Amino acid sequence: MSYNHPEMEAESRTAEAMIEIFCHGQHGSKEGLCPECRELLDYVVQRLEKCPFQENKPKCAKCPVHCYKPDMRGKIKAVMKYAGPRMLYRHPVLSSAHYLTGK
Fold this sequence. Notes:
mainly alpha; 65% helix
C-alpha cells in the first residue's frame, strides 16, 4: 500500500491493527486474517486510496461523504467497537496517534 500522505498510511495501519484484533478475538484466527476480515481490510484500503480528503481526512463518522457500503460500514463499526478498547494495550503508539490526531 502506498499513499500520498503519511496520515493515510497511519489510518491504514490503524485499521489493519484493529481488524487483526477483532479477527483473532472474534473469529479465533491465529495466523493472518480469516477470509471475511481480509475482505474487509481490502475494502478499507481501497476506500482510503480513493478518499478525496487525503491529508485533511476527518473521522469517518464526521465525514460529509459516506463512502462505505452499508454492510461494510456495519462491519467496520463492529470491529471498532470490539478492537477500540483493546488498541491501547496492543498498539499504544498507533492508538495514541489516532486519538491525538482525532482520526
